[in-house]
């Protein structure tokens, strides 16, 4: 039997899935939630609390420790890791890791009997990694754009304007504010390439899919853009390996993992990619014509594109499709974080939120609406939190938990619909994944707002599934459709069809929502 391992290092957890491509079965899956299993890092939601809400960082050693935990969990569950024929993975996009020594100097292995985190700690030139939620680089974004000829030039080169959470502006901020530490930095990684490098005990390059989320990659050339490298930080080009195609065989699993966890010697690794490109694969949506909504810490909408299309508002992005070509993506920072915050403010625990509270209110919520932005937002770009409540006094006061719950979910769905329009595809079916996709009431609201059929994925973690399938496709050469038919079948038993009678309600509510966004733009509250 052909077993392949997929890993997903996301914002709040590290997941592992083992698939058997002969039987079409998921052999095992395990998940290490950082806040629960690794509380010593002080990151209850996967990142360090900071007095400045625009600064969001995580400890890369937490990800390393979680990697060992999840592999130990698989082995404790009786999974024979010696049967794994290939490994690939995904990482939360945009986050960056800074090393004082290239991992090529490690010698291809780690020392036995020494915790991996203790071996990697001395290699870091920066203890904490800025992640995708960080919005503290507005100045650097403007500087990069000005250096290469403006926002339009950055978009033409990279598929996105200079974005606060993207890696290039984060690198520039570090190089400016900590020049001595930047001088000590020998190598810069994304979360994805860092985790792959840890497994290989050597430096692994960034793949084109994840590299497109850095404001550094020339999409047309498939190479780092010399003007953007120069505009970002001195000597940056020497600190990045050349990017590679997503199917590239980038090395072998280090003997450390063979000895400690029972992998077979010379187990091959496929380049890791970003969690969103990996989810595109895991949803079986690598060809144009599918719209995918992922409901996680952030909410995202993405779709494969035959040709890259640019969002005229500058909110959407173009990334690499791991199966070839391009993908469009809209990311909303206030995903589950906002849903959980509203549940807390309304006196609900998440279980109550998931068990029928949304069904206690009617579509449109009696006109109660909320701008659900509890942290600085990406889509639209908000410089600061803006949870604006629009409705009756009792609603504002949080005295109606059911109305509060519906207000945030309806507003989030309207925000996704408004800003995903640039993708330009007619949609009658939307595939959904992520933790909140287990909530049938949330799926009902999505179906009615988009007036489209909503179909959840049968397997929950599409990013980890996509990683395992990428490894299988790279090493077995199976056609994508054959793999998708086995592992990406939608769960038709949970499909939700739209209620046409709600269309007028959500058109009116959508107009109100779009008007409020336009008002925020006009007032200068939204960063352009």
Characteristic key phrases:
Nucleotidyltransferase, domain 5; alpha+beta; 528 residues
Characterize the structure shown.
The strands form seven sheets. Strands 16-17-15-14-20-21 form a six-stranded mixed beta sheet, with helices on both faces. The protein folds into two domains: 3-277, ATPase, nucleotide binding domain (Nucleotidyltransferase, domain 5, 2-Layer Sandwich); 285-456 and 498-528, ATPase, nucleotide binding domain (Nucleotidyltransferase, domain 5). It is built from 20 helices and 21 strands. The model has no long low-confidence stretch (mean pLDDT 91). A hairpin with a 3-residue loop joins β14 and β15 (299-305). The termini are far apart. Helices cover 36% and strands 19% of the residues. It has 528 residues and is an alpha+beta fold.
Shape: globular
Instruction: Give the count of helical stretches.
Output: 20
Mean pLDDT: 91
Ranges where pLDDT stays below 50 over 5 or more residues in a row are none
Integer-rounded radius of gyration: 22 Å
Quickly give the structural class: alpha+beta
Query: Distance N terminus to C terminus?
Result: 53 Å
What CATH calls the topology of the largest domain is Nucleotidyltransferase, domain 5
CATH domain class name of the largest domain: Alpha Beta
Percentage of residues assigned to helices = 25-40%
Output the CATH homologous superfamily of the largest domain: ATPase, nucleotide binding domain
Largest sheet entry: 6 strands, mixed
Strand content: 15-25%
Number of domains: 2
Q: What is the chains' assembly state?
A: single chain
Strand order in the sheet with the most strands: 16-17-15-14-20-21
Give me the CATH architecture of the largest domain, please.
2-Layer Sandwich
